[in-house]
Fold:
Amino acid sequence: MNYQAYMIKYAEIGTKGKNRYVFEDILCKNIRNRLRSVGDYTVTKEYGRIYVTPEGEHDYEDTIAALKTVFGIVGICPVVISADTSFDSIKERAIAFVGEAYSDKKKTFKVNAKRVNKQYPMSSMEMNADLGEALLEAYSELKVDVHDPDIMLQVEVRNEIYIYSLTIPGPGGLPIGTNGKAMLLLSGGIDSPVAGYMISKRGVGLSATYFHAPPYTSDRAKQKVVDLAKCVARYSGNIRLHVVNFTDIQMAIYKNCPHDELTIIMRRYMMKIAEELAKKDECQALITGESIGQVASQTMQSLTVTNAVCTMPVFRPCIGMDKQEIVELSEKIDTYETSILPYEDCCTIFVAKHPVTKPKLEAIEKSEKLLEGIIEPLYEEALNTVELIHVRA
Amino acid sequence: MEPYFDNAATTYVDEDVAKLVYDIMTDKYGNPSSKHRKGMEAEQYIREARETFSDILKVSGKWIVFTSGGTESNNLALIGAAKANKRAGKHIITTPIEHASVYNPLLYLEKQGFELSFLEVDEYGKVKLDSLKELLREDTILVSIMTVNNEIGTIEPIEECAKIVKEYNKDIVFHSDGVQAFGKLNLYPSRIGVDLYSISGHKLHSPKGVGALYINPKIKLNPQILGGGQQWDFRSGTENVPGIAGLSLAARKAYEKLDERVGHFKEIKDALTEGVMTIEGVRNNSGDAPHVASFSFEGVRSEVLLHALEDKGIYVSSGSACSSNHPGISGVLKSIGLPKELLDSTIRFSFSERNTIEEVEYTVEALKELVPVLRQFVAR
Structure:
């Protein structure tokens, strides 16, 4: 079917009081940005709704796929618009619409006519009844159900006639940019891209930090992280990806600290560096993919010790999720296949056979004292040699 | 300096070859099957290429089939011969050190009901001739033994093997994967009883995506790609004329100066071996092939060393510690009895004419510097 427009449904942002207009304008802007690479569209706000209108030829599948990545959109209704407002024409259009949109007619339906143009000669009730009758006549298998219909046929009378019924679910959430920006600690694993997706869904823009440890991790491992960032950026918008060379810091910890504490101390340094970069990038929080108890460094005690180096809030949206639940989300956002490519990341290279699972902050801080005078220049060097990659949506 | 020591993976394209390929692509672009002059012109390149191969291999030119590369040649040879000869039996013999493009088609055949037996190899990767004699059976239809191993450079006693097989039963088809051998040594398949011989282009300075298979006209072989019936039905599909002409020129150049090339490889290999072996805790796994050297560095993970060398502009390959679960086959390094802790510590160096003694010296220095450092950092 040829749809002339897409009506965008958004739920949550309608409830934000006076901020509503701000939210709507940002959503419109985000939709425009996202569709720029798909084709020519105009995005307009009217009568408290957002309409996406293609200019000339457009690809239905591509349009829907793009809109499904814009946070803030709850539903997408493809709309048929007709300039001929005569009731006969409306009837004809409604019959054609149901005929094409639903191949199986063994369904219940209800017509819901609305008149924005109150000058129209028929009342909504009359329109509902007459259109219902016409549809029953055209398709004998259809049945009326006014309470819980399979097909809710919306007919809106404005200066033109709008007919729609399908609502394709959008990603939900809030428009990116309405809730600031956060720094995602992105590894090559399954969890961190999912964490980034989940937080950006709440309207948060993203920056990201990746810890690279050549020659222990390869350029392919780095490329994998860039690819993952690209997947997340489809939803979150452009991501500034900071690649930190972490090898020397890791080596210093390896040489000077107890081996079973290596991972936890390493993670504390990662958080510190990420926080510094976050401040520079005007982020207000950190995001990690941690989940309680998943590995030794993610026990509650370990999380507490890691958390102690940060002053910014650390968001851990996967914290209560099972691995399987995280995997399902990663499949949904298309990061899973990339995440499972077998390149070593810097967290796994020197892992101890029996790392501490119940670290005490005092003990870890004492071990870190062993790094005094050694680690500071390496820390500065790591911050000064960050490679910035602009990952585009 | 940017020493490229990964020539067993792939090589640079020779400049003359590239020019010829370009010229054919942009000017002599006809389809060899076309009836007009443009087609005839293209066909001429293929005819010339066949002549080149018949000269080098000393076989009748008609029996060279051009393919998309070593993998396709091996697939066509093994699957084609097994399927065409299955009435005579279903037993196939191979070695535990074959390349994946031989091993995996054979595993496929095993799933199709063929039976696989694996030869024993000694600590240098050489096939034990006694084990071949023991494995041959009445229902053996196919034997596949590579000429030169790709990971450690063992040269297999192909002539002796083929002789044993043919004396046992002249109808058994003998295949050899010559991908690492072609351009580095002389082998005349029809004179020594090799029925099928696989060749790849990009290992000897021609473009990727072209290869060849010598087929003994007396054996039965089923085509694997069906279509327009090109190349006497053995391999349908419009011939890759630029690639084939490029392969032909590269082959001619390689064999015109074979002794000189081999001499150069040996010089590089000897210098590198001498230098590397001054480092403590290194095991030399290299076979006789002039262009391949393999070393295991105790206490160093090969992938880490590879990336550390890469950082200095040196390109090598990590000897893969094959993790196959198949009984009888467990990777080249395992088959030669390499201790478990060295499997993941092995680096392959492979050479071309462009490599220099200076590059070797630079590389040895780099290794002397890197290996002790990397040994400090291992998972405890």
Summary: Chain B touches chain A at residues 303-308, 310-311, 376-377, 379-380 (CB under 8 Å). Chain B has two domains: 15-256, 258-376. Chain B has a mean pLDDT of 94.
